[in-house]
Design a protein that fits this description.
alpha+beta, 6-stranded mixed sheet, 28 strands, globular
């Protein structure tokens, strides 16, 4: 049922407190002095004249009491550069002052002299290894997936289809920029309040930074205005910076980035390059193939290995591969580190897979629809990692329904006729895809997430999780799950603040895991409350609300605090081999087909998306309004990924880090987005739910580019696809038609 959002009233009435609304007594404001070159040795730092430096708190790497590294996976990224810099936004110094308005002048008065070193800016440069900038070979991580005898398929193939596909960086562009407040006390420890996704990531990082035990670090999520992965790992950096300034000053310190700094210095979606080589039979069946998937990780490892992992596992799409070899690499470049963004590697590799399926169709002489029908995964078959599909998914039926909702076949024929002499060319295309819910492979087993549900003396119930709310509906749905499990009104269930001093580590709020994985644990913990009261004789089966309230009050009066805990246990039959990269990659997949209608204007070479049908199978929809909102928002971001959002790089620095020149779609650029669901259930998710937050990011880009190809008869293999790219392609085609001669007036 679409119950009201838990935090909705506070947000719409202005009572919600975001980080920049919070002021503490004696608070200072902090800023960061960053590198101005992509790679080099720090030779000298000069504090210029005209600034009262004795009024400022200044922190350098020498002030760090513990490890000068951001604890995450590889622990290779320093909080503050000491001797060398590896990207043009690398933090070197921190400044704090009671007047935030003097910080910019002070930062600009600091001059840093460098001995520059050769830098690496592209995937290809990194692969050539002319300069080694990370490890022995510039590779953060490599994965190899092998299934069947790939080497034997080439001799059997009637067609061998090759293609290369690229995707660009994408900025998360959340409404609220990164920001934190830190307070340090040598006896109590460090407390951080911030706009963030993963409190326990920050907690872990601060423990290592200050060599503190876990009880001397507290992290509290404040109201958070959007995240999309951009506040998964980066808050550990800004939190550490504010905490270091607080340690040195003895006062609370707030750091809030402005939009330009946030866009230039923080993580983005990984740029990627995917190469396919596929063996295909005469009747359009995939016999096997090789996929090479490479992502640009930037200067430090951050989350590149896990982004690469998801992209690798999704690289084969929703298709059956009798034999496949996927080689995947995350490489280093001298750009700010790339990180998490909704979809987490899957949008990149699935874009390539879907564009390649269209290329296979054209090569074999089949329609895009028919080539997919002949290769869809079916129940009982295995994925690229040899995971058997047990759920009764029928991708043929899903495709049929999506095409019917979009009136695909009639429109395709009509557009073909109408386009012959039109300046406004119309096209229609689609994409089929899947998305695994939860952490990949052994990730959930490693996290061992813990969730609590508390019964209170007044009969109310509190959910205890570190899963965070940043607009997607975490608070609402988890409370809904607890209420439904206990048979109580939704209004009787609250959720505790995401405060590491109060709630257990239920894992990060990422990877479409909140409803399926954490929600299932909430359901289990709530049952523990119910079963305890029934077993104690305080509650009968089929109880009323009033009876539950009385039972809670009696239990607490007699025995004290009343909490039930649930810890993640791997479901039976779910096993992943990390060494061979084989097995059950995810406990469940969501499945989808998206159909897109576009108009290409051959006067301006711009693309307008006219209609969008988004059909997905998601297990069970628990909150229809929030579920539709998730799909609609993901589609909007996917349209930006495909057509608008291009990061312009120069020597490793983002050149268009402002809302005026980093173009994203507005509401005027979006089509009607028609959202439809199918529900097969899911034994591993709360009330049958699967994850849906990331799924809608995967399909829009390949569907849109397919529609553009349908309109123009030109294939495009790289995004974002801008008007100038379409102009160049149509011009090149016209030159070919003109026998290679220059065109008059061009």
């Amino acid at each position: 049922m679409p119950v009201p959002r838990k935090e909705g009233r506070d947000k719409v009435t202005g009572r919600a407190q975001y980080i920049d609304d919070i002021v503490m007594p004696g608070m200072l404001y902090g800023t960061t002095v960053r590198s101005t070159i992509p790679r080099g040795k720090i030779r000298k730092i000069t504090f210029g004249e005209g600034v009262a430096w004795d009024e400022f708190v200044v922190v350098s790497a020498k002030d760090i009491p513990g490890a000068n590294c951001v604890a995450l996976i590889a622990d290779d990224q320093p909080y503050l550069a000491h001797e060398v810099v590896n990207h043009p936004e690398e933090p070197i110094l921190l400044l704090a002052h009671s007047n935030r308005h003097v910080l910019t002048k002070a930062a600009n008065a600091i001059t840093i002299a460098y001995d520059p070193l050769p830098a690496v800016f592209t995937i290809e440069e990194s692969e050539r290894q002319a300069e080694i900038i990370w490890g022995p070979d510039n590779a953060f991580k490599r994965f190899l997936v092998e299934k069947g005898d790939v080497d034997a398929v080439w001799a059997k193939a009637d067609y061998i289809v090759e293609g290369e596909y690229t995707t660009g960086a994408q900025e998360q562009l959340y409404i609220e920029n990164n920001g934190v407040i830190a307070s340090f006390d040598h006896e109590i420890g460090v407390t951080v309040w911030g706009s963030l996704q993963c409190p326990y990531y920050v907690h872990k990082a601060l423990m290592k930074l200050f060599t503190f035990p876990e009880d001397k670090v507290r992290v509290v999520q404040t109201e958070t205005g959007g995240a999309f992965g951009g506040k998964e790992d980066y808050p550990s950096i800004i939190a550490g910076h504010a905490a270091l300034l607080s340690m040195k000053s003895g006062k609370p310190v707030k750091i809030v980035y402005d939009r330009m700094e946030d866009m230039a210095a923080t993580t983005k979606r990984h740029p990627s390059r995917t190469r396919h080589r596929t063996a295909v039979s005469r009747d359009g069946k995939i016999l096997g193939g090789e996929i090479e998937f490479v992502v640009d990780g930037g200067a430090y490892a951050t989350l590149s290995s896990v982004v690469l992992s998801r992209g690798t596992i999704h690289a084969g799409g929703p298709y059956y591969w009798p034999a496949i070899r996927v080689r995947a690499t995350a490489v280093a470049t001298n750009a700010p580190p790339h990180g998490a963004f909704r979809g987490f590697g899957a949008p990149q590799s699935l874009f390539a897979m879907e564009r390649h399926m269209d290329r296979i169709a054209a090569t074999v002489g089949l329609s895009p629809v028919e080539i997919r029908r002949r290769n869809f995964l079916k129940t009982g078959q295995t994925t690229t990692t040899e995971q058997t599909i047990h759920e009764p998914i029928d991708l043929d039926q899903l495709l049929d329904r999506a095409l019917a909702l979009a009136d695909y076949h009639a429109k395709k024929e009509r557009f073909r006729k109408d386009n012959e002499s039109a300046t406004l060319k119309k096209g229609i295309g689609f994409a089929a895809f899947l998305h695994g819910a939860g952490f990949t492979g052994s990730g959930e087993r490693y996290l061992a997430s813990v969730v609590g549900v508390e019964g209170c003396a007044d009969g109310r119930v509190r959910v205890l999780v570190s899963s965070t709310e940043f607009g997607q509906g975490t608070k609402t749905v988890l409370c809904q799950i607890a209420a439904e499990t206990l048979g109580l009104p939704y209004e009787d269930v609250d959720i505790a603040p995401a405060d590491t001093g109060e709630v257990p580590n239920s894992g990060p709020t990422v990877a479409s895991r909140t409803v399926m994985v954490v929600g299932k644990l909430v359901q289990s913990a709530a049952r523990g409350i119910q079963q305890t009261l029934i077993a104690s004789g305080l509650l009968r089966e089929g109880y009323s609300r009033d009876e539950f309230c009385r039972a809670c009050a009696e239990y607490i009066a007699d025995r004290g605090e009343f909490k039930s805990w649930a810890r993640y246990e791997p479901p039976p039959g779910i096993f992943w081999d990390d060494e061979k990269y084989r097995g059950e990659a995810y406990a469940a997949y969501a499945w989808a087909v998206y159909v897109v209608e576009v108009t290409v204007d051959l006067t301006t070479y711009s693309v307008k998306v006219d209609d969008f049908v988004a059909l997905q199978e998601v297990g069970k929809v628990l909150h229809p309004v929030l579920a539709r909102g998730q799909i609609t928002g993901g589609v909007a971001q996917g349209i930006g990924f495909a057509l608008y959002e291009k990061v312009l790089w120069q020597h490793g620095r983002m050149q268009n880090g402002q809302m005026t020149n980093y173009i994203m779609p507005t509401s005027a650029d979006l089509p009607p987005i028609r959202v439809y669901f199918e529900e097969l259930g899911n034994e591993h998710g709360a009330f049958g739910a699967k994850g849906i937050g990331e799924l809608p990011m995967d399909g829009p880009a390949p569907a849109i580019v397919s529609a553009i190809e349908d309109a123009l008869g030109i294939g495009f293999n790289s995004i974002p696809l801008l008007p100038e790219d379409i102009f160049e392609a149509t011009l090149a085609r016209a030159r070919i038609a003109n026998g290679g001669r220059a065109l008059q007036g061009v």
